[in-house]
Amino acid sequence: MRRLIWLSVVAAIAIAYPLLLSSPFQQRLGALVLLYAIAASAWNIVGGYAGQVSVGHVVFFGCGAYAAMGSYAKFGLSPLLGIPGGIVLAVGLAAIIGVPTLRLSGHYFSMATIAVAETVRLIVTNTEWLGAAVGLSGPTVPRNVFDLSFLSSLPYYYLFLVVLVITLLITWWMTNSRMGFYLRAIKDSERAARSLGAPASRTKLYAYMLSAALTSVAGALYAMMFGFVDPESGLGILISVKILIMAALGGAGLLFGPLIGAAILVPLEEISNSWLGGKGAGLTFVVYGAIIVLIARFQPGGLLSLFTGRRKPGADKGAGHAP
Amino acid sequence: MSFVLVQVIAGGLLLGAVYALFSSGLTLVWGMMNIVNFAHGDFVMLGMYVAYVVYTLMGGGPILGAPLATLVLATVGVVVYFALIRDIMKGPMLAQILGTFGLALLLRYSVFWWFGANFLSMPSNIVGGTYAFAGLRLEASRLLAGVVALLVTFGLHLLLTRTSLGSKMLAVAEDQTAAQLMGIRPDTMQAIAWAIAAGATGLAGALIANFFYIVPTVGETLGIVAFVTVSLGGFGSVPGALVAGLLIGVIESLSGYLIGAVYKDIVVYVLFLSFLWFRPQGLMGKM
């Protein structure tokens, strides 16, 4: 019951926010928070629940972004139509990375994800058809509403809100399904889970593929909002870093952890960028690095685990993830 | 075989020796403590910047820069061990990866913030000249780096296998409690391992600073190279790292020469991924 009250309060704030704080900057900020919350929640499925730290998640983000912009720039279609293509690409790539590495210890997986992300970035940067270093642009003047090209951030805000709710529902459904129970067992002790017959590698792979698909959707939405994608904004390793740190700061393996992380870090970065200008870029990541080190050292469960008691994240029962 | 190809292979071997040197640092801590330092490549980057600062402030070449970079990085290694690694070692995998990865960001962007994103380079005359060996022309700076790296890597191997310090470290790697009962302090041994590992990166950084581009993000590529080298050579095996490092150096220069400079990183990454598919236990190591 208490959880229900909390949920309705959060939902009410989320719906009312862009109407109450209605300056373009605030609306854009709200939309960005939701966008990163989608990406971080998607990461959370593999990074938090399955305990496999993907550092190259941006590659799926890029699949979605390039598919959305490509469907406009190459075929003259609505960017929306690129989303299924992006999902297929992302899931296929996840299988290529996941099948060999998820059998090995977690370090291999992390390093392989970096290697793949960098490989794809280098290849795209040198591929003329994908716009090379310049990237691809979306429609400058929207032909119709399906081009999803709006001047105001308000439509994006509500679109992102809907996608975020869907992402969270999928995550919640997953944790309560057989897969969620397998994942918790595997995370506690992979050897014990295997000996009890839980298909460890396959379950982790499914989680990874699901996460990749949702991240690709986030990438497509990102490209639509900004109207273009280039190798740096669509495939740069720093996007992965942002996604990962948001989930970890809020609480990896907790349903609302990524949302909390995004709500703290996105405003922090936007404000520091507008204060410090270009010089702030380096400093932002110094702060990010320091935050990650401090979380890892003192509060590996993330901020939200401060409030959910001393339980190990992911080790608790059923749907007990919500605050 | 064409003569240019021999030249390219020789260059690859010299660079590969440096890869072997800093990778043996990674393999040491990985094999001993089962922790992977994602900031390893950024340690090399720090070594390069130490050498650069030594040059700009004091005008000193590698004779001054290399020992100083080794010393500075060894200190960094010990500090990192006591401040971070000792605690996250016992934590979950997530904390281990996040901790060292966060450290990598912290180092990379502190340097970025301080020095800017520009490509810096050392003046080419600091270790000047080229040597001719049986028709091969080798730059002095690369020759110096390769030979020193090879000697130090070999020395590291002897240290780990032939001295009592090496045996003590091996004992801690095998069984901490048992080692403690024999009067060996695991904490001290692990701190020494971090000092050696980080010192090796400092030396490697100072050696390649003379001919490599110096830029804050160079650590990312070098970190992946070290990771690939260790997974090919097997954990904890310095000879394995040596063979794998030389191999990767040669493959990288050959692909840079035959396919194009842009693709040489891609070749290393793809090689790594195909190894994960077909031979995850590495070239000579066990799982």
Give start-end ranges of low-pLDDT stretches of chain A: 310-323
Shape, principal axes of CA atoms of chain B: globular
Regions of chain B with pLDDT < 50 over 5+ consecutive residues? Answer: none
Kindly report the spatial arrangement of strands forming the biggest sheet of chain A: 1-2
End-to-end Cα distance of chain B, whole Å, is 37 Å
Q: Level of helix content of chain A?
A: 55-70%
Question: What does this 3D model show about the protein?
Answer:
The complex is a heterodimer of chains A (323) and B (287). Chain A has 323 residues and is mainly α. Chain A has a domain at 23-237. Helix content of chain A is 70%, strand content 1%. Chain A contains 13 helices and two strands, in the order H-H-H-H-H-E-H-H-H-H-E-H-H-H-H. Chain A has a two-stranded antiparallel ribbon with strand order 1-2. With 287 residues, chain B is an all-alpha fold. Chain B is 75% helix and 3% strand. Chain B contains eleven helices and two strands. Chain B has helices spanning 3-33, 40-58, 62-88, 93-115, 140-162, 164-174, 176-181, 186-208, 218-233, 238-258, 264-278; strands at 130-133, 136-139. A two-stranded antiparallel ribbon of chain B has the order 1-2. In chain B, strand 1 (130-133) and strand 2 (136-139) form a beta hairpin. The model of chain B has no long low-confidence stretch (mean pLDDT 87). The chains are: A mainly alpha (323), B mainly alpha (287). Chains A and B meet through helix 4, helix 5, helix 11 and helix 13 of A and helix 3, helix 4, helix 9 and helix 11 of B.
